[in-house]
What does this fold into?
Amino acid sequence: MTIRTIITEPDKLLRQVSKPVGKVGKKEQELMTDMLETMYAANGIGLAAIQVGIPQRIIVMDISKEENKKEPRFFVNPIIKNKDPYKATYEEGCLSVPNQFAEVDRPSKCEVEYLDYNGNKQLLKAEGLLATCIQHEMDHLEGILFIDYLSKLKRSMIIKKLSKLKSSTLEV
Ligand code: ZN
It folds into this structure.
């Protein structure tokens, strides 16, 4: 297991569209394990492979809040099958957009078809935080960040802040 480096905005890699996984093999499982460790270490609830620089359609998630009751979930090649027309609003954050939070509206329920850790086909019927989280992560596969849903002004303010943060860390 290796904790990988999480890429933060602004970075062109985060805007890349990820490619479907051909087969879930040992290499992909290793990546998922690393991603899960990386996500836990950063106190996140979801992580897409592109956030550690790998443009593959792989997501790990764990929305359980309790430390001793971990519920890791793995999604390979996820596809949204159904979306509820009713929207729900959550305050979202992102490990690639550190310390920035904003309310985003998304379909309140969705059905997602995907391959699990062992490469078996699964269907997830999600609602609440789970539905929001999987849609946020699936956006990463298309190169979309939650700040893209904000006004141009808000988004550019956040990007400016993050760029400043980056350049100041480089000076150290
Ligand atoms: Zn994110």
Notes: The mean pLDDT is 95. The chain has one domain: 12-171.
